[in-house]
Design brief:
With 220 residues, the protein is an alpha+beta fold. 52% of the residues lie in helices and 15% in strands. The longest helix has 31 residues.
């Protein structure tokens, strides 16, 4: 409809479309002429970048946390609060039996629908991703351990560490694609700046003062 109506041929729109086209050509050309060589970076350069950024590739300990939650909000009546406490203590006592199945108990008894649907599993979390109200308890648990009941703002929790991944540093092979990508991006940004500077050096920009004054007069 725009083309049929001649919208693109209106003077203002023609000028705008020309600027868009010119910019696209300039950007595309600059991207092409400053593309890093196919063999960049070398293996040695990748290794150096890896060695210099080891801290950035550190992965903290992660735990697969599971929970059993019994609601007991601040505004609960004394009777309801007492009932919630008794219920969590009963579940805790049951879980002390070596034959007790935490997953089954969480599925059937936990009052958090989302985690209960997954056998109590909340997911893989680092210490920083765990809410401060439960972080201290979770950090002390080892794989397979179940916590004693403890109270948070909205109720009671029993935690279990289903699995854990120890802290480690990502290997060079794991991060090689990322390093290569970042180095190539940095090289292209540098080369683009140098290319633009060389153009300006070869063909310095000149300002036509008379033309500027004419524009100002027209605008006023």
């Amino acid at each position: 409809q725009a083309l049929q109506s001649g919208w693109d041929r209106k003077p203002d729109n023609e000028a705008q479309l020309k600027r868009v086209r010119d910019n696209a050509i300039a950007d595309g050309y600059l991207l092409e002429v400053t593309q890093p060589p196919a063999d960049y970076p070398t293996a040695a350069e990748v290794q150096t970048a890896y060695d210099q950024n080891l801290k950035a590739f550190a992965v903290p300990r992660q735990i697969q946390l599971a929970q059993i939650f019994i609601a007991s909000p601040k505004d609960a009546t004394p009777e309801a609060a007492k009932l919630a406490q008794e219920r969590i203590q009963m579940l805790s006592k049951y879980l002390q039996d070596p034959k007790a199945d935490f997953t089954q108990v969480a599925t059937q008894k936990s009052e958090d629908p989302k985690s209960a649907a997954q056998g109590g599993v909340v997911g893989w979390l680092t210490e920083e991703q765990i809410h401060p109200s439960i972080r201290t308890v979770a950090a002390k648990l080892k794989k397979g351990e179940v916590s004693a009941p403890f109270q948070i703002t909205v109720g009671w929790l029993i935690l279990k560490v289903q699995d854990e991944r120890p802290a480690r540093t990502l290997s060079l092979e794991e991060v090689r694609p990322l390093i290569v990508s970042r180095l190539r991006e940095a090289r292209q940004r540098r080369d683009s700046s140098e290319y633009m500077r060389s153009l300006v050096a070869d063909k310095p920009l000149n300002i036509d003062a008379d033309a500027v004054l004419e524009v100002v007069k027209t605008a006023n």
